[in-house]
Design brief:
With about 160 residues, the protein is mainly alpha-helical. Helix content is about 65%, strand content about 5%. It contains eight helices and two strands, in the order H-H-E-E-H-H-H-H-H-H.
Length: about 160
């Protein structure tokens, strides 16, 4: 079948199919006129690739699974384990984003609270813009990784 037919039947774009071909994930035959000629199995493979991408797997992660899918040796348990690892990674990303969101909201609240208080230091009273700007921003709190790095003491030279 031609690429447009495969795209329609697999529910992916022609552009995506060409990309998969460039990466060696799909390998069509070529007709005498140069048109791509995909076998019937290419539809299942294209759907497998597209579904894996929708689940967040990178193409480099999909390639070895696709080879096992083609060979019929991809076990349900292997995919279930990969999906669990993906879900765990997504949860970690969501936790990190939630922490970042909370820092943003805390900073916003701090700024709004600060804007309500007329505090003036000596340099602010002098009216220097840089002093006003410096006083308006809190020192950033270190992230979890930075806090851990702060706990690590460098070795003293012998």
């Amino acid at each position: 079948m031609q690429i447009s037919e495969l795209a329609r039947r697999a529910g992916v774009s022609v552009h995506a199919l060409r990309h998969y071909e460039r990466l060696g994930l799909l390998v069509p035959l070529r007709q005498a006129n140069g048109y791509r000629d995909y076998p019937e199995t290419a539809r299942r493979e294209a759907v497998f690739i597209a579904m894996s991408r929708q689940l967040g797997f990178a193409l480099r992660e999909i390639a070895p699974r696709l080879a096992r899918f083609r060979a019929g040796s991809l076990r349900v348990q292997d995919m279930a384990e990969a999906l669990q690892q993906r879900a765990t990674a997504l949860q970690s990303q969501m936790d990190a984003l939630e922490a970042q969101k909370q820092r943003v909201l805390d900073h916003r609240a701090w700024l709004l609270e600060r804007s309500q208080k007329p505090t003036r230091t000596g340099s602010e009273a002098a009216g220097t813009p840089s002093a006003r700007n410096a006083a308006a921003w809190p020192r950033p709190r270190p992230s979890g990784a930075e806090q851990q790095a702060d706990c690590i003491q460098p070795r003293k030279p012998r």
